[in-house]
Amino acid sequence: MAPTVHTLPSAQALEFGLASQLHVSFEFFPPKTPDMAVALWQAVDRLAPLAPAFVSVTYGAGGSTRERTHVTIERILATTDLVPAAHLTCVAASRAEISEVIHRYWDAGVRHIVALRGDPPAGVGIRYEPHPEGYRNAADLVAGIRREVNAEITVAAYPEKHPDSPDVEADIDMLAAKVDAGANRAITQFFFDNDLYFRYVDRVRARGIEVPIVPGILPVQNFGQVQNFAQRCGASLPAWLARRFEGLDDDPATRKLIAATVAAEQVLELARRGVRDFHFYTMNRADLVYAICHLLGLRPQLRRAAA
Ligand code: FAD
Prior knowledge:
Elements: H1 11-18, E1 23-28, H2 34-47, E2 54-57, H3 66-79, E3 84-89, H4 95-108, E4 112-116, H5 138-148, E5 152-157, H6 168-181, E6 185-190, H7 194-206, E7 213-217, H8 223-233, H9 239-245, H10 252-272, E8 277-281, H11 287-295
Parallel strand pairs: 1-2, 1-8, 2-3, 3-4, 4-5, 5-6, 6-7, 7-8
Helix pairs in contact: 3-4, 5-6, 10-11
Bound molecules: flavin-adenine dinucleotide.
């Protein structure tokens, strides 16, 4: 019998050989209540020693968390040695208002902005209407940021296309416009079928777009919530994923083990197929993300002394 030929590195090889080439980043959202603030800062403390390339903080729908996003970013800058990336959306805001936010970020020490259009205030699926004095879309916003400050700029990408887009090629037109306007990298919407990601990256590269397309990984903390997100953002949920969480509504311990397995399989396969940058949607919880990073071979680093 012919020997099996392994062309991809095994999980063990990954763990021991490739960790130094990996870059991870973590996304947090600004907390609404004191309890949520405790959870956020516990998650930040736990994940910080993994030395992420950056940590991003979201900007609530329609700029609703503008102040809380800013306070969260300021605290990251003041109390950690992490590099923050501040999200910014242009929905329902004039160019002058956006300019103010950009300069406030810059003056606080932010050098990386995640530039997004945002969803219409009336909800996803309703036609997006730009503010009469605002930016039309994320590409326009990226150009606006570039005119104001010399920040690193990350944008969103959609392996399964954005719901507003007629097809994937039209969606890639928008990604190309964002990159032409000055975006340095894209982070994808979450997905669970890795082939979708690789097919998308092939199409993006075929269009001559060279910026990193970093997979956005969503560990399933709560399957119902993920179903909800998926429905709103047009991401598909494979039948096998639903089956894995079937019957576990009242069994959080098993759910957590399954969630860890699902995310570990996904991330290890991406790594075996050459992916080196990962962005984790943490939902302000560290455990699953920490475990997955550990599987990838990442270990806590000694913290650099605060400057
Ligand atoms: P754009 O790139 O401007 O457009 C999205 C898509 O709409 C395009 O890809 C294109 O297909 C279509 N489209 C837009 N304009 C046109 C046009 N003129 N003609 C044809 N098609 C068009 N939302 C928040 O509110 N706060 C956040 O912090 C936040 N963070 C996010 C982080 C990531 C990594 C991702 C993937 C999404 C995030 N979102 C956030 C959600 C995002 O705001 C929504 O997906 C929004 O609907 C689109 O934003 P965008 O920047 O992709 O928009």
